[in-house]
Specification:
The chain has about 170 residues and is of the alpha/beta class. Helices cover about 30% and strands about 15% of the residues.
Length: about 170
């Protein structure tokens, strides 16, 4: 009888979680059937910590970055009037944050809209990012979306899909 119970428990674990995985991601588990996640998936570069932004490390595979080597501390949530180092912002993404970054000239109205939007959330940062080719980029761990103009509904969909999902490696 006991071996039947153990066999059943093991079978349920295999069905529920699959071999070698931790099961579906929190976003996938909550997503309705047919849900298309916002943004574009970017391959994961891992969660390695570095001590200083100048330490040698793997190059990021997106602009702005969406994963990879990062500092052991995070940037302050909210609005930053200065660019945030790649190595710092990646840790915020790992902690379930979303970055909303902009690169434009004479766009004070748009920047004001982004900053006002960010006040609604506790794990969002709005900051300039001069190296971007588009006016706005939204980043979360492993995801990016770029916009040519402020689109509150699209930004909100991205933030709600990814904010709060922790990406630390579990052992």
């Amino acid at each position: 009888m006991r071996s039947l119970f153990v066999s059943t428990a093991i079978a349920l674990l295999i069905i529920g979680f699959g071999f070698g995985t931790a099961g579906p991601s929190p976003a996938a588990a909550q997503a309705p059937q047919g849900f298309v996640p916002p943004g574009k998936e970017i391959p994961n570069l891992g969660n390695d910590h570095i001590k200083n932004p100048s330490d040698p490390h793997t190059a990021y595979n997106s602009v702005p970055p969406t994963s990879g080597p990062h500092l052991p501390y995070i940037a302050k949530w909210g609005v930053s009037k200065t660019p945030i180092a790649n190595e710092l912002q990646v840790h915020n993404l790992e902690d379930g944050g979303v970055m909303i970054q902009y690169s434009c000239k004479d766009c004070d109205v748009m920047i004001g809209q982004l900053e006002k939007f960010a006040t609604k959330y506790n794990r969002v940062i709005v900051a300039p990012y001069p190296e971007m080719k588009t006016p706005i980029a939204l980043t979360a761990w492993g995801r990016i979306d770029t916009l040519d103009r402020f689109d509150e509904a699209r930004i909100e969909r991205f933030v709600k899909a990814y904010m709060g999902i922790d990406h630390h490696v579990r052992e």
